[in-house]
Specification:
It is a single chain. With about 200 residues, the chain is mostly helical. It has two domains: about 50 residues, Orthogonal Bundle (Arc Repressor Mutant, subunit A), CATH 1.10.10; about 140 residues, Orthogonal Bundle (Tetracycline Repressor, domain 2), CATH 1.10.357.10. It contains nine helices and no strands. Helix 1 packs across helix 6, helix 4 runs parallel beside helix 7 and helix 6 crosses helix 8. The mean pLDDT is about 90.
Length: about 200
């Protein structure tokens, strides 16, 4: 695919994210997305064959975005505990600076699985993000910092904390800004995952 076409696809994804976040996935039409992009609906189909295909590309885009951020953390020479702190920071920062990304992940990808049907079986569409978390957990276990356990138990615990806080923030339930909870959440995650037998 040519670079201009790839750039235009990214622009459409970003616009669609904003509209889906504001109006909801089902209430937003391809015609509306195309209009906001200054293009015809017919031209839109040159980039995405359907709204469902667009939804698939959006979740891959979010996964790759977060995966890229996590890869930098995984490759940094800091402790496992510090890496947890950095992962929490990146996730919460994304929630504050680009809330439509995590809103889409929590409200569309996780809550409306029928949108994806056979498109995103298992973790296919979030592979980039999940892979970096796997690397993080494996490295922590190898260093003796984290308890050796089923990956999906650890993943569920980690994402439960992060997703729960982002959801509460989005609903404006939290009494403090989201970043005020970073240290406490990172500490709670570390304590829940750490290897108690380490001396």
């Amino acid at each position: 695919m040519s670079r201009p076409k790839e750039r235009k696809k990214r622009e459409i994804i970003k616009m669609a994210l904003l509209l889906f976040s504001k109006n909801g996935f089902y209430s937003t039409t391809i015609t509306e997305i195309a209009k906001m992009m200054g293009m015809s609906a017919g031209n839109f189909y040159n980039y995405f064959i359907s709204k469902e295909k667009l939804a698939e590309e959006i979740i891959r885009y979010i996964s790759e975005y977060l995966g890229y951020k996590l890869r930098a953390i995984n490759e940094s020479p800091i402790s496992t505990k510090e890496k947890i702190r950095e992962i929490v920071h990146i996730y919460f920062k994304t929630a504050q600076e680009e809330p439509e990304m995590l809103d889409f992940f929590l409200r569309i990808y996780l809550s409306n699985r029928e949108v994806y049907k056979e498109r995103c079986e298992g973790i296919t569409c979030i592979h980039a993000f999940v892979t970096e978390l796997m690397i993080f957990f494996d490295d922590g276990v190898q260093k003796g910092d984290l308890r050796n356990q089923d990956f999906f138990l650890a993943f569920g615990l980690f994402m439960g904390y992060l997703g729960g806080m982002v959801f509460l923030n989005g609903e404006q339930i939290l009494t403090e800004p989201l970043n005020a909870y970073e240290e406490s959440i990172a500490e709670n995650i570390y304590r829940a995952l750490k290897n108690e037998c380490k001396t």
